[in-house]
Write a structure and sequence with these properties.
Strand content of chain B: 15-25%
Number of domains of chain B: 2
Helix content of chain A: 25-40%
Shape of chain B: globular
Radius of gyration of chain B: 22 Å
Structural class of chain B: alpha/beta
Order of helices and strands of chain A: HEEEHHHH
Strand order of the largest sheet of chain B: 4-10-9-8-7-5-6
Number of strands of chain B: 17
Strand content of chain A: 15-25%
CATH topology of the largest domain in chain B: Aspartate Aminotransferase, domain 2
Largest sheet of chain A: 3 strands, antiparallel
Distance between the termini of chain B: 44 Å
CATH superfamily of the largest domain in chain B: Type I PLP-dependent aspartate aminotransferase-like (Major domain)
Largest interface: A-B, 24 and 21 residues
Shape of chain A: globular
Number of helices of chain A: 5
Distance between the termini of chain A: 35 Å
Helix content of chain B: 40-55%
CATH architecture of the largest domain in chain B: 3-Layer(aba) Sandwich
Radius of gyration of chain A: 14 Å
Oligomer: heterodimer
């Protein structure tokens, strides 16, 4: 599969007009992570009530795949229970974006989900390289 | 320079990627290898393979002669006096770590200073950070100015202000991000004026600049074979004989020792006291073929060829109007690489899209994260050149770049 096919118009749209690209001041969960290979980074913020995600914010810089991935993921997990989010794995992000499991860009596509899961499980303890 | 003849020696250039002719512009990461290097590896393993220094049989004598002789070839290539001044390591990184450990841990004291620059590769930053933690030494950095060059006035100020504390000035010869060629002679004189030593990271320069450690005033020099058409797994550390003798071994084991008792050991002769364990014999031997390849074409011819490519590529990129080029704009001050960003397209996406067109470039921080913080961008895209690149390669790259950008303009 060519790399060009990664850049579907939906992904370009989310990259150029990211949804939920915001900081949430008093977030219940917050986590910054980066991809040490390429320097992509994302910070996620979660507002949670009764074990259900009420609001998601993310900020960061990176390639189209990682930022569109964060944007698309944010739309999906609003309204989702924490327990369900914990069970999500990388294939959720990949199918959301139409990216194959053996693509060299898997790490980019799944970076934001990794951040969300670590926010819930470990909290905010990763040092930030660029902010 | 006969381009057709040179390129015919690189079998990988016949390869297709995604059905298209390979355009390899990631030479700063590693260069491709000519037939003579690939063939020499087969010859070594087919005819001479044996361990060294420890057998009296024919093969061991042959392997030892070839491996030891490779040190002489490597020494001559950089103007060192002989094999006693050349240690084979795995790569530039290991060479710098050797200096940090064998020299640094012996000589440096709390509050001593190692001066580096803002354009260093991680390999010339982190070994000193590790020493900083365990010995309490400090790192000072020479700033990079707005033209991508070292601020030499500030270098002078840092060195003279701390003249008793600065023990080493360790600087990259050619930046792997900016392409800046640093003034080695001037820097080594500044270091020596205050009684400090001077180390040169020649990873990006050894395949394009004639190096003479004596004339340049270099005390330590580090380079990698694989960035100069040779095999991976071989690097060089040069140090003058006095320094080699002053330094203690940093790894112990077989091959680095003359005599061991229950209480003590007596290290082997130079340079073997720094090559513990069975070394990378085959690649060390093969490295000589890479050196001969470079010498037969001539460093001046290689440098001139690459200068024309950089000039052509800079002109093309500047003409596009949406490409930002990092590093010196004047061609006399740069070599090897062009790092750039494209408005609205992340470098990582560029490199994926260019790969569709069989154009291999690098994207990321190029193991120079602190420099990218200074440049104000987390990542850049980079093209880097070698003797086999042509103007057709650059044309193919520029076309692919235009196509990549158009994907994002939809």
């Amino acid at each position: 599969m060519s790399n060009r096919s990664l850049y579907k118009s939906k992904i370009i749209d989310h990259y150029k007009n990211p949804r939920n690209f915001k900081e949430i001041k008093h977030a219940d969960y917050k986590r910054h992570i980066n991809n040490s290979v390429c320097g992509d980074e994302v910070t996620v913020y979660l507002k949670v009530k009764n074990n259900v995600i009420q609001d998601v914010g993310f900020q960061g810089s990176g390639c189209a795949i990682s930022l569109a991935g964060a944007s698309m993921l944010s739309e999906q997990i609003i309204g989702m229970s924490i327990d369900k989010v914990k069970k999500l794995d990388g294939s959720f992000s990949l199918s959301l974006m139409g990216i194959e499991k053996n693509s060299p860009r898997v790490k980019c596509a799944t970076l934001s989900l990794e951040a969300v899961k670590r926010a819930i499980e470990d909290g905010d303890d990763e040092p930030c390289d660029f902010c | 320079m006969d381009q057709t003849k040179i390129n015919s020696q690189f079998p990988i250039l016949k390869r297709k990627v995604n059905g298209k002719r390979l355009v390899y512009l990631d030479n700063a990461a590693t260069t491709q290898k000519p037939d003579r290097v690939i063939d020499a590896l087969k010859v070594f393993y087919s005819r001479h393979n044996s361990n060294i220094h420890r057998g009296l049989h024919t093969l061991s004598v042959e392997a030892s002669d070839l491996y030891e002789g490779a040190h002489d070839v490597a020494a001559e290539f950089i103007g060192a006096k002989g094999r006693e001044e050349v240690v084979f390591t795995r790569n530039t990184t290991e060479s710098i770590n050797l200096v940090a450990n064998a020299w640094g841990r012996k000589v440096l004291r709390k509050n001593d200073i190692v001066v580096i620059s803002e354009m260093e590769h991680h390999s010339n930053i982190i070994p000193w950070m590790i020493l900083g933690k365990s010995l309490g030494i400090r790192i000072e950095r020479i700033p990079v100015d707005n033209y991508g060059k070292l601020d030499l006035d500030e270098c002078y100020r840092i060195l003279t202000k701390n003249r008793r504390r600065v023990k080493l000035l360790s600087i990259v010869h050619v930046s792997n991000v900016l392409g800046t060629v640093n003034p080695v002679k001037q820097l080594s004189e500044m270091a020596h004026d205050i009684g400090a030593l001077f180390m040169l990271d020649a990873a990006q320069s050894a395949a394009r600049v004639k190096i003479n450690v004596e004339a340049m005033g270099v005390d330590f020099l580090a380079l990698s074979s694989h960035k100069m058409y040779g095999p991976t797994g071989i690097g060089v550390l040069y140090a003058g004989r006095d320094l080699m003798e002053e330094m203690d071994p940093w790894m112990g084991g077989g091959d680095m020792v003359r005599r061991v008792t229950n209480e003590e050991f007596e290290p082997a002769d130079l340079p073997w006291k720094f090559e513990a364990g069975t070394p990378n014999i085959a690649d060390g031997v093969v490295y000589t073929e890479a050196i001969r390849f470079i010498q037969e074409i001539g460093l001046d011819s290689i440098a001139e060829h690459e200068r024309q490519l950089i000039s052509y590529a800079m002109g093309k990129l500047q003409g596009l109007g949406w490409v930002k080029i990092y590093g010196p704009q004047d061609l006399a001050s740069r070599m090897g690489v062009i790092s750039f960003t494209v408005d609205g397209v992340h470098p990582h996406d560029l490199s994926s899209l260019l790969d569709d067109e069989a154009v291999a470039i690098r994207a990321g921080h190029h193991c120079a994260m602190p420099l990218h913080i200074k440049l104000g961008t987390p990542a850049t895209a980079r093209i880097s050149f070698a003797v086999y690149n042509t103007k057709e390669d650059i044309d193919a790259f520029v076309e692919a770049l235009k196509n990549a950008r158009s994907t994002f303009l939809k």
